[in-house]
Specification:
It is a single chain. With 83 residues, this protein is mainly alpha-helical. It is built from two helices and three strands. The protein has one domain. A hairpin with a 6-residue loop joins strand 2 and strand 3. Helix 1 packs antiparallel against helix 2. The chain starts with a strand and ends with a helix.
Length: 83
């Protein structure tokens, strides 16, 4: 029996908690697999940017590279807190 979006067992009158579908399980599994992969890509990009920064002398280019580093570090921090 369903009442106010809550499902009850008609025999024992207990609340029945819905189970996840297979599609929801796939989404959870995919998220767990994507985040580590994305983290690795960001770390490689940060290493590449570090090498570029070392050899760069133009202030404008350095500023752009540092902005990219800041953005990637923010994303990395968000990934670390979400996993």
């Amino acid at each position: 029996m369903k009442q106010n979006d809550v499902v009850y067992c008609t025999t024992c009158e207990k609340v029945i908690s819905p189970t996840r579908s297979k599609e929801q399980d796939k989404t959870i599994i995919n998220d767990r697999m994507v985040i580590p992969g994305l983290r690795e890509v960001i770390l490689r990009k940060l290493n590449t940017l570090a090498e570029m920064i070392e050899s760069e002398n133009d202030v404008s280019t350095l500023t752009s590279l540092m902005n990219l580093v800041a953005i990637l570090l923010q994303i990395l921090k968000q990934l670390e807190t979400s996993s």
